[in-house]
Amino acid sequence: MIPQAAPASRIARYRSAVDAAIASVIESQSYILGSAVANFEASFAAYIGAAHCVGVNSGTDALALSLRALGIGSGDEVITTALTAPATAQAILQCGATPRFADVDSRTRCIDPAAVESAITPRTAAIVPVHLFGMPCDMQALMTIAERHKLAVVEDCAQAHGASIGSRRVGTFGHAAAFSYYPTKNLGGIGDGGAVLTSDASLAQRIRRMRNYDLGEDRTARSVGFNSRLDDMQAAILSALLPHLDEGNSERRAIAGRYRELLGASDLELPPQNEGCIYHQFAVGHENRDGLRLHLTRAGIQTNIHYSPCLHRHEAFSSKITESFPVAEHLAGSLLSLPVQPETTAGSLPYIAESILEFIRT
């Protein structure tokens, strides 16, 4: 079976550096908020181009802590895309706020700025755009809308480590940005992990306190805080992998280009070409998605579905939602994520493409 994702293969590729990182943490005897975390925070902030990086327990916590630190809570609405992982909307609920969904752009599959503006109500307090599959959102348009309506913006960069708009990396446009280091991400650890990126020093300080029970320098709790800390073991592993992130992203772009060459003449809906995309997933659309997936499984090719159903169809978020999101619904019913991780696709792209074309022909 050709796996759709295989994080262990990436770890094996850089095993000597990872082993050295693990050994250094064990020998340090500093496992929580130690030097490995501080070193990674500084390196990742510099890589993204933000002033501050705050390591936390997960990408979901990064979103929730960012929103809480920005004052988002009960009675507020937060606009996000209907086509994303449930974690995005769960983070909004965890703040006591209400997710309000907007449709996506049919080409980029990211949140549609026009739909965002139409969804704004007097209760709207923030926007959470998701750089889905590593494709950058239209951040210029979204920030213009946010500034006009005085809204906070937290970028969900869980799938966009190193994605960019021009010369500027995503994660530097909003008031804060949330990253995930889940093992299958372009920069992933061996377990859960996340971070908040911001250039607002006071916001970073609030999140640093909140991730550690909201303890002040006198070690007394100031308000409701959380135990949400990136541990030193994951931080050290991420530091070992970070120097290879751009190389991996370039390889993913090359794989995406090869898929386009091999599949461009078919009736598949392919993701658009975008120099700033880092292809966390290469998702193709087909009207008989489930049939195609079964065919590829029988051919020994593993695929995945991201994300179906749309969030407004989930019981946790569906209360009182009456809007329809036709573009997101179409994509949720037709997109299929192909193998795109460099370690899983090596030498296999012609076979994967021919298997897809065989299904389409027959």
Compact summary:
With 362 residues, this protein is α/β, with parallel strands linked by helices. It has helices at 7-13, 15-28, 35-48, 59-69, 86-94, 113-119, 139-149, 201-210, 232-241, 245-263, 289-298, 326-334, 342-345, 349-361, and strands spanning 52-56, 77-81, 98-102, 124-128, 152-156, 164-165, 168-169, 176-180, 194-198, 282-285, 335-338.
The strand count comes to 11
Report the uncertain regions.
none
What is the strand content?
A: 5-15%
- The count of helical stretches stands at 14
Strands ordered across the widest β-sheet: 1-9-8-5-4-2-3
Overall number of domains: 2
At the first level of CATH, the class of the largest domain is Alpha Beta
Task: Name the overall outline.
Answer: globular
Instruction: Give me the CATH superfamily of the largest domain.
Output: Type I PLP-dependent aspartate aminotransferase-like (Major domain)
**What oligomeric arrangement do these chains adopt?**
single chain
Q: How are helices and strands ordered from N to C?
A: HHHEHEHEHEHEEEEEHHHEHHEHH
Structural class: alpha/beta
At CATH's second level, what is the architecture of the largest domain? 3-Layer(aba) Sandwich
Radius of gyration (Å): 20 Å
Main beta sheet:
7 strands, mixed
Average pLDDT, rounded to a whole number, is 97
Termini separation: 22 Å
Measured as a percent range, the helix fraction is 40-55%
CATH fold name of the largest domain? Aspartate Aminotransferase, domain 2
